[in-house]
Each structure stands twice: as structure tokens, then as C-alpha cells.
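Colleagues,

Please find the record for the four-part complex below.
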Amino acid sequence: MQLDEAKRKFIEGWGTLGSAWGVSRTMAQVHALLLVSVGALSTEDIMDQLQISRGNVNMNVRALMDWGIVRKELRPGERREFFSAEKDIHRVATLILQERRRRELEPIMRVLGEISQVEPSPAATAEETEAFTKMIGNIQNFADFANRAASTLIKADENWFLSTFMKLMRPNG
Amino acid sequence: MQLDEAKRKFIEGWGTLGSAWGVSRTMAQVHALLLVSVGALSTEDIMDQLQISRGNVNMNVRALMDWGIVRKELRPGERREFFSAEKDIHRVATLILQERRRRELEPIMRVLGEISQVEPSPAATAEETEAFTKMIGNIQNFADFANRAASTLIKADENWFLSTFMKLMRPNG
DNA sequence: TTTTATTTTCAATTTTTATTGAAAGTTTAA
DNA sequence: TTAAACTTTCAATAAAAATTGAAAATAAAA
């Protein structure tokens, strides 16, 4: 397989993976393109290679910069902006984990905290109220666990991630 | 807060969380409703409580059954079907992890394997080809890691999950 | 300042995804 | 069998999300 075709397949696959995880296909594809490009790309480079509009590129590179996984690169004597992706995949994973925790885990934990305060009322049987409280408590425990696990992974340095964590797993895992 | 309002907020929050993770809002809401319902619910119960059509309920409970997190319950002397959610949140997480690995991790690993076979060609510089191969290799390593981590979590029993894994994390993590 | 290059915004449009509802299908009971 | 109760399917429709493209904004150069 030649490089062009391989890149194309990677961009397609990354886009599909992204959309399964709630990231827009195009945003994932812009990320994929930057990941497999040696230098930084201009808006026009991205427009050309992915066949999408200027506005679309702009929106998506900014979103990727919000995630911290794409950086703007300014070149002396060049007016336009160039974009490049963080190439260290472990760091990419860490940054994504961090953002998803902030954007998704924290809000649901807040909701769980609020609704765990449910009070007994004549409209519901004690059994119903108790079952609800227990379920929410279990979900809170799990969310706390996920939150702590995320903290550990985020704080941990790469070495820990690749060695200590690996040791956890059986060789034939 | 009263039970009804708490349930409503949970269903809403779970739906929002789901859509951030690539699960349709309604599917997540059906799941949430079943999670906080004491007994099993009929199609009509779900239609009424979520204000959605019969076809929509049918589609979504079947999808949830495909994920293994909702079961059909048959009652003697009753012709209609009732549905109930797996209530053990750890098991829910395990089943979801298992399915997502199968549906999303495996396909991207297959793509990575294919494109890692990229061959040198006159159309690309050696530097470009090498950079690509290196990047794909790094992603493959990371995917292997994720795959093994998933295997370990899936195979592990609940006790391991809650104790051994917890020990990994610092108390102040 | 004025011009030019470039980025950003956003209303209109297109595309994708979800939903409906009624017909067809299935199962059980009479 | 036939009828009744219920489930499933799917074409049509609605809703949501993504995309465009051109105008407005911004920044640099002349």
C-alpha cells in the first residue's frame, strides 16, 4: 500500500472512531490529517486535502485547540496560521481524558449529588424512594471511582502509565 | 426534591451523558428510566413516561438488549413483554466496555494493521513514510494497551475491580 | 490612512440521524 | 381456524447536526 492510500484510510478510520465516541467525523478527520502530516498545515492545505470549506476548517481546528491536542504555529514572515497536532499519543490520550472528565463526568456528578437528596413523600412508596437512593448511590460510587482513576492517569507520568500499568496485566491478557 | 423530579433529572442527565459518548439520547433515557424503575416496564409504560412512540421504544429496547444491559422479562399469564435493566452498575460498565471494544477498538486496530504495511514509493519522501510508520506504530502500541486493559477489566471479577484497582490509586488521588 | 491578506462569524442550506405511525408480522387464546 | 393482543418493520417525516460561503471583522503591510 502506498503512503497516500494509507493516510486516506487512517483519516477515514479515525473519523469513524471519533463519531462513535461523540466527536464529529470532520473534527476527528482534521485531527487525523494533522497527526500524519510531517509539518504544520495551513487552513488551505486542510481544505484541499479533506475537501471541506474554510469555515468548517476554522471551526474544527479551534475545537481541536480547545481540547489542547492541536497547536497554532506562526512562521516568521508568513501571515497565515499553520496548525500541527500533538504527536505524543500518550499525551493526546491524557488531554482528551482530562477534557472529557471536565465536560462530561463533572456535570453528571453534580446531577447525582443533587438528586441523591430526594426526600420521602406521600406520592412515592418508601420502597421506591429507597431503591432510587441506592441506585444513585451506586452510580455515584462508580463515578467517584472513574474520577479518581482519571486523576491518577492524568497526573501520572508516561513512564508510570506504560510500566506500572502494564505490570498490572497478565502477559497473556 | 421529590422522587418524580429526581427521576426526571436523572433521565435527562443520563441522556445528555449518553449523547456525548455517541449513544442516542433516547436510548440512554430508556436505559435511565429502567435503571430507576423498581419493576420491569412494558413498552406502553416506557412510551408514556418518556412520551415517545411505540416504534421508538421497540428499537431502543432492542438496542439495549444487544448491549446486554437490558433484559426481557416474561410474566406468566401476561402476553406483553416487560423490560428491566441490569442494576449492578459495575456489570453495566463491564458489558459496555466489552461491546465498545468489539465495535470500535477492534475495527481501528484492523485498519492500523493494514496501513502499517505502507511501502516506500517514489511519490513520497523516505522521511514522510518513516514518520507515518512511526506514528501508526505508536497508535498501535496505545491501542494494544487499551485492548489489554479492557481485557483485564472485563475478565476481572468485581472484587478485583474494586479492591486491586483501588489500591493503585493514592488516597488523595 | 488605505489596501490587502487572512480569520471569524453565522444565516441559509444540506446532510445525517432519529422518530413516527400505520401496515405487516407474529404469537397466543378461544 | 379465526380473532385478538402484541411486536416488528420501514417509508415518510421531523429534528438535529454539520457544512457552506459570503460578509464582517481583524491584523499586517504599504
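Residues 24-26, 52-56, 59, 79 of chain B lie near DNA strand C (CB under 10 Å from a C1').

Comments are welcome before we finalize the supplementary table.
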